[in-house]
């Protein structure tokens, strides 16, 4: 707890950092981008200057938008058409540079489309998602659920050691930007 009194960090953040098992705020900052994806500074500002490539692909459940940064998949959306999905992504990343990248993301899009259509797809994609430490724990628990299986919010809460956090787990599931994956 060498930097517990670091004035740059609010007391609630410091408590959460140590409660999550980090030995210092420095250790948290160094490892946060690995666990959470986007750097903490990028997350707070909604990605200014961040380059995001995206592609769209039709599926039996609607159009699927797949978006990625150089670090990994950052957004997957399913909807009725391209224009609405691209606009939703622009709202999610308002200060980012969005580029159509059909060729570069073709393989990823095919795998995500297979998932959307209920076909098995081998996916172990790097992710670049933004979220709290709690959300990251929930999202990692979701990734461990075998394909074709389901878990209740209570089961997910129990699996991450917080059985009373059912509502928080539900909120984290709803905030997952790559839920399909």
Number of strands: 4
Helix content: 40-55%
**Overall radius of gyration:** 18 Å
- What do the pLDDT scores average to? 80
Report the β-strand fraction as a percent range: 5-15%
**Widest beta sheet: strand line-up:** 3-2-1-4
Number of helices: 8
Structural write-up:
- By secondary structure, the protein is α+β, with helices and mostly antiparallel strands.
- The protein is 41% helix and 15% strand.
- The chain has eight helices and four strands.
- It has helices at 11-19, 25-36, 40-44, 82-92, 106-116, 133-143, 153-159, 166-174, and strands at residues 51-59, 62-68, 73-79, 97-100.
- It has a four-stranded mixed beta sheet.
- Strand 1 (51-59) and strand 2 form a beta hairpin.
- The protein is globular and about 40 Å long.
- Mean pLDDT is 80; it is low at 1-5 and 33-46.
List the helices and strands and how they pair.
Blueprint: H1 11-19, H2 25-36, H3 40-44, E1 51-59, E2 62-68, E3 73-79, H4 82-92, E4 97-100, H5 106-116, H6 133-143, H7 153-159, H8 166-174
Parallel strand pairs: 1-4
Antiparallel strand pairs: 1-2, 2-3
Helix pairs in contact: 7-8
Descriptive tags:
181 residues, four-stranded mixed beta sheet, alpha+beta, 8 helices
Describe this structure in a few short sentences.
The chain has 181 residues and is an alpha+beta fold. The protein is 41% helix and 15% strand. It has 8 helices and 4 strands; from the N terminus they run H-H-H-E-E-E-H-E-H-H-H-H.
């Amino acid at each position: 707890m060498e930097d517990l009194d670091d004035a740059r960090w609010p007391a609630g953040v410091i408590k959460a950092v140590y409660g999550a098992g980090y030995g210092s705020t420095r250790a948290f900052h160094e490892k946060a981008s690995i666990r959470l994806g986007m750097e903490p500074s990028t997350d707070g500002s909604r990605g200014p200057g961040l380059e995001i490539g995206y592609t769209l692909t039709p599926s039996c459940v609607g159009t699927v938008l797949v978006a990625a940064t150089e670090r990994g998949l950052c957004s997957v959306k399913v909807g009725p058409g391209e224009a609405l999905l691209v606009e939703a992504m622009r709202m999610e990343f308002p200060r980012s540079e969005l580029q159509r990248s059909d060729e570069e993301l073709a393989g990823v899009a095919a795998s995500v489309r297979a998932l959307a259509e209920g076909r098995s797809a081998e996916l172990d994609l790097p992710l670049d998602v933004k979220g709290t430490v709690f959300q990251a724990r929930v999202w990692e628990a979701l990734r461990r659920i075998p394909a074709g299986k389901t878990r209740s919010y209570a089961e997910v809460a129990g699996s991450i050691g917080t059985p009373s956090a059912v509502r928080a787990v539900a909120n984290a599931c709803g905030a997952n930007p790559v839920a399909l994956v």
